[in-house]
Structure prediction request, 116 residues.
Amino acid sequence: MDFYGIDRETTIGNCDSLALGREGRGTESICSWNRIRPEHVVELLDKASTEARGEARDLAALLSRFSWRIRGAAQAQGSSNRIVSNVREITISAAGRNFQLHCTENPSLKLERITA
Prediction:
């Protein structure tokens, strides 16, 4: 199935992450403590917020052409005065660059912005 005119399976197949979580978990049930899989990244890009849609499309095109790796998911720093933060970051490496996917968890992950 296509997203942004890009083949979803090809993009997922380009991921060479060593440690992957369980297959078959949908994005709607992903929480910060779950391992992020390639299909989750593709789903986050596909359902990005309106503000992040252009960056998500560009990153999806890059991931469909090059080998990429999920570097990790972590709670974002910066809200140190808050007891609980619903912001999560997922780091993706592709074409010699690192991209931070800034997601909110409310109750499932939603891509809000991408930084390089």
The chain is about 25% helix and 30% strand. Residues 45 and 60 are 7 Å apart (CA to CA). Residues 2-16+27-115 form one domain.
